[in-house]
């Protein structure tokens, strides 16, 4: 497939995990990709083996709105336009509300929510010109609650409704806005969880297609939502969760 030939795609959190898998997928399908991350060393390493004529790395913190403006400008300067934004960079902290410090809460919200806002706001004027689209990585944690994940759940719930609200307004300009909602995926974020055999076994019980998910499988759905194949789809939160949300919450009987 070559669905993204001559398209420019900005992917945040592109040094690792789902963002890196998405960047690779878009490149495989012919796109120009601006890979944005705040981890400079990992970003350069990740981009090293990729087609340099179609890749631009950009270091910045998405919580800082200056990063968003600079990254969009860099995409325009290098590739001449911007067609698709993948809002994906995210952070997680554990803890219930009593264990969550104000500092941790603010950091999670500033990256996972304000960061998505800054990037979308900076990209929209360009996306309107080309009837582009946005895909945001939310989470199953944005569709329902998890135990001991207060700040992260709060932020992903906001992302899930951000796409609905944006989709309603952006439709008149022909811009589509959707989310993927993964469950437990093998990425940098989950390396500690993956070492916990008991926890992995609990996830396997809850995920009919098995656990953990692979980042490439999530990236494939991001690519679908970003593509013309999904031209009639907007405002959707699409679980990419190996079946977790098919459950009503009762235990296996
Ligand atoms: N891994 C999972 O199980 C899972 C499940 C559901 C949703 N998600 C979501 O997927 C997205 C990608 O995470 P991942 O699992 O691939 O983790 P990851 O840690 O492998 O990748 C996240 C990337 O984002 C970058 N990043 C973090 N904060 C940033 C910032 N402020 N500015 C720029 N870059 C920043 C990191 O450096 C890293 O390269 C996140 O939004 C996460 O919440 C992950």
TrEMBL record:
The keyword Oxidoreductase is annotated on this UniProt entry: yes
Gene3D superfamilies: NAD(P)-binding Rossmann-like Domain (3.40.50.720)
One of the record's GO molecular function terms: oxidoreductase activity
InterPro entries xref list: KR_dom, NAD(P)-bd_dom_sf, Sc_DH/Rdtase_CS, SDR_fam
E.C. designation(s): 1.1.1.-
Keyword list, A-Z: Oxidoreductase
Top-level taxon of the source organism: Bacteria
One Pfam family per UniProt: adh_short_C2
Record-annotated Ketoreductase domain positions: 7-174
Enzyme class: oxidoreductase
PANTHER family found in the cross-reference section: EG:BACR7A4.14 PROTEIN-RELATED (PTHR43975:SF2), ZGC:101858 (PTHR43975)
Name of the protein described by the UniProt record: SDR family NAD(P)-dependent oxidoreductase
């Amino acid at each position: 497939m070559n669905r993204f030939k001559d398209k420019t795609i900005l992917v945040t959190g592109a040094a690792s995990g789902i963002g890196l898998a998405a960047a690779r997928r878009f490149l495989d399908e012919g796109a120009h990709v601006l890979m944005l991350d705040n981890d400079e060393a990992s970003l350069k390493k990740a981009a090293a083996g990729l087609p340099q004529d179609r890749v631009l790395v950009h270091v910045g913190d998405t919580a800082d709105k200056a990063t968003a403006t600079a990254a969009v400008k860099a995409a325009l300067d290098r590739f001449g336009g911007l067609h698709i934004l993948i809002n994906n960079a995210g952070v997680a902290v554990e803890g219930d509300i009593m264990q969550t410090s104000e500092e941790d809460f603010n950091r999670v919200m500033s990256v996972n929510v304000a960061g998505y806002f800054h990037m979308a706001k900076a990209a929209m004027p360009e996306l309107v010109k080309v009837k582009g689209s946005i895909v945001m990585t939310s989470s199953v944690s944005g569709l329902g609650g998890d135990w001991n994940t207060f700040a992260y759940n709060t932020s992903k719930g906001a992302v899930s409704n951000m796409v609905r609200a944006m989709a309603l307004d952006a439709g008149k300009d022909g811009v589509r806005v959707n989310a993927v909602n993964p469950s437990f995926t093998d990425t940098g974020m989950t390396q500690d969880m993956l070492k916990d055999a008991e926890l992995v076994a609990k996830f396997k019980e809850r995920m009919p297609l098995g656990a953990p998910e692979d980042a490439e499988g999530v990236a494939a759905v991001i690519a679908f939502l970003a593509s013309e194949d999904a031209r009639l789809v907007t405002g959707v939160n699409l679980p990419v969760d190996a079946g977790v949300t098919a459950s009503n919450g009762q235990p296996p009987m």
